Amino acid sequence: MPNVRSGLRLLPPRLVRRRVAPVKAEGTFTVHGFAPATVEQAIDVRTGVDVGVATMEKRYDGPVTGHSATLFTAAFDQASGVGTYLAMESFEGALNGTAGAFNFAHVASTHGADRVDEAFVIVPGSGTGGLAGIAGTGGMAVESDGMHRIWFDYTVG
Description:
Elements: E1 4-5, E2 8-9, E3 23-37, E4 51-61, E5 64-77, E6 82-95, E7 98-110, E8 116-122, E9 128-129, E10 135-142, E11 148-155
Antiparallel strand pairs: 1-2, 3-4, 3-11, 4-5, 5-6, 6-7, 7-8, 7-9, 10-11
């Protein structure tokens, strides 16, 4: 028999999703390896900017600490500095001291000196360890001095 109060059906407690305020973790990172990868496309399509693929290793410091393996894809014109990248990262480390691993994806475009049309998402279902059930967003920025920053706005559980 369903729980009924004042004519309203109530969900069992195990089905009620509690809203939890996201936690923020910020850090810096450095790239420790960028290796172009050879990928054969199923068909040859020529566009104004060639697409390239590379693998990267990044190391993170601060409240975001650990390392990641990155699959990096870009359509970028070196001469003009115009293009777009798409990256999928497998992160292992800790956010605010909670250890685990998860995947996240990010994309951005540039017209030379800017960073526009950004998107950043933690891959649902990818968390392990203390980060099992992680969900959320984040972002990246490159400071004028070349410092790379990252942040995650996330919940766990």
